[in-house]
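Renewal narrative, Specific Aim 1. Our central claim is that a sequence can be written position by position from structural information alone. The example that follows is taken directly from our test logs and has not been curated for this report. It begins with the structure tokens describing the chain, in the order in which they were read.
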């Protein structure tokens, strides 16, 4: 699904998750009098297929990696550290969501439990602090300061002696430019997630569709903001 982030509307839907989905969008876009050279920005996850498709079909477009996707990967690293440490520390059992949530979203009980866990000098606590530090990156607006901040964060993460954290940090290093692009573009897939929830609601209301084609048509009708200009 391709969404116009300025107008919050669906502009193309097709099957698949490979680079051909990008080609499909380009063909449809140009069929409707668009010009691929005018597209300046894409926001997506770190799928190699999407990256390859964008680079080969939209040569003037910069890629911004979705910050929610980046933080999801970081949460996976924190949870992996917790699971490994939990094997010899029973105090970490049933604490998964405490580490995955942001502090402002924790209940009083969870905050109290988090405080006591931090006092134990756990590896999980260290991974959690590294995650929170990465979260602060998204608030920066000066490109020079943002790059310096991310470099310091990368050094900390790769010297943490936490393999899951080091692995994710290296993944981010390989996608450095696309992460830093957020400082200038300020785009993410938050709108896309909202649209996805509406699509699921439509799917549930319809109790399924006879074909993918019918499902796609419904998405366009509900979320494409189409202008039919019917005669009155």
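The sequence written for that structure reads:
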């Amino acid at each position: 699904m391709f969404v116009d982030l300025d107008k919050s509307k669906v502009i193309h839907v097709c099957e698949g998750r490979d680079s051909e989905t990008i080609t499909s969008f380009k063909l449809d876009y140009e069929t409707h009098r668009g010009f691929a050279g005018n597209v300046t920005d894409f926001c997506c996850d770190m799928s190699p297929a999407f990256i390859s498709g964008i680079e080969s079909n939209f040569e003037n477009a910069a890629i911004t990696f979705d910050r929610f996707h980046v933080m999801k990967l970081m949460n996976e690293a924190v949870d992996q550290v917790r699971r490994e440490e939990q094997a010899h520390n029973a105090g970490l059992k049933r604490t998964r969501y405490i580490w995955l949530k942001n502090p402002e979203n924790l209940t009083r009980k969870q905050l109290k439990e988090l405080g006591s866990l931090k006092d134990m000098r756990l590896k999980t606590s260290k991974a959690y602090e590294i995650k929170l530090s990465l979260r602060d990156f998204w608030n920066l607006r000066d490109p020079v300061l943002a790059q310096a901040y991310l470099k310091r964060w990368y050094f900390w993460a790769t010297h943490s002696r936490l393999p899951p954290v080091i692995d994710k940090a290296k993944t981010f290093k390989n996608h450095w430019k696309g992460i830093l692009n957020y400082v200038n573009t300020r785009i993410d897939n938050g709108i896309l997630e909202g649209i996805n929830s509406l699509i699921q609601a439509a799917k549930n209301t319809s109790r399924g569709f006879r074909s993918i084609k019918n499902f796609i048509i419904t998405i366009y009708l509900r979320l494409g903001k189409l202008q039919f200009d019917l005669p009155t």
